[in-house]
Amino acid sequence: MRPIDALVDALSEARVLTDPDVIDSYARDRTFLEPGKPLGVVLATSRDDVVTTMKWATEHRVPVVPRGGGTGLAGASVAGDGSVILSLARMTAIRELSPADEIAVVEPGVITADLDKAAREHGLMYAPDPSSYEISTIGGNLATNAGGLRCVKYGVTRDSALGLEVVLADGRVLNTGRRTMKGVTGYDLTGLFVGSEGTLGVITAATVRLRRAPATPPATFAADFSSLRDAGAAVSAIMAAGCQPSLMELLDRATLQAIDEWRNIGLEPGTQAMLIGQSDAADSQAAVERMERICTENGASFVAVSSSPQEADELIGLRRLAYGAKERQGACLVEDVCVPRSALAEMIGRIEAAAVRHGVRIATVAHAGDGNLHPVFIFEHGTVEPPPEVWAAADEVFKDALELGGTLTGEHGVGLLKRRWLELESGPVAGELQRGIKAVFDPLGLLNPGKAI
To answer: How many angstroms separate the CA atoms of 388 and 183, rounded?
Structure first.
């Protein structure tokens, strides 16, 4: 009997898919990377399904690739040859939502926006806000330590993760963390699993922190600049002035042109960058007006301030169109280098220079308030992988980010795409220690092999 048949017997044919065409639809993420040929797909609906799968995988020495919504941009959930894909997308229960403790206990398949919507019914919110929040899952966000638009004020996913329920490689169940806002007992295993890209264990539930939703609707502004450097200077001035924006996003002209071609936003010829900021403070309108003045002082040619929640949503919606607009223009290599905020303008200039030097299209957006840039390298649809000039430009961008004191990834993760540059940032000692940690949790190397480290 084939090993996969034993798994079918343990879970049923409805839970284990073996049709090659169906498997292929689960084997990819949003990168251009081509998957291998997996043995099957497990559609887990409970922790017990995950336990059964991992015990089977250990017995038969079969690699397991955990998967959420498949919205990843680094290749972390791309399946390899001979693996089994473990889909957690059907584990969608919000097990508990406690307004008194300001926490929720959720399963990994819960959509990020759905958790936020449920929290707001109690005057709370779930702060992490990746651009894919309407389709990405909490489990995937935890696996990559996703950031998003509101991270400038509220931090990344790790800052909202209090505790986890994790199935280890051999099928044992581990509970980490706590339900309390404070706790320092033992090593921080919760923090270790968040961002581990499914290489240490499979998250089957998470206790996450909720926060009080703003009492009044946030106020928003959008400012046009004739140069990216002026926009970067405005960001630095806003943060230095203590304005505490809840969102601060930068779009370059290439991004704006892609959106304009799709949705006709009336892009002005002289606009080279747009800065979109928001405040959800009690005095949000006054805070945004202060940011408006700072933008004008730093060379903004036009600033629009929202006068209603609908206008605010429209301005933020512009930012959320960015990636879809670029996908319409070609295949995309999406990166997310992060630099110290003071180096933001310099890094933008270096990205522009790399595009010219290598003759490639790069469209950049940034979570500007925390120095996290997303240069998107656009190449021809149907190309198996980026052409050499794109890789050369990407190599230059990564090295520039590290030279400026930054990092290879601020929120998308390493996956498969960034492993070739990992040694440049981590160094041999860190690499050795990380491989040692992997061996403790997954001695047979079955969990998402070849990813993250």
So the answer is: 49
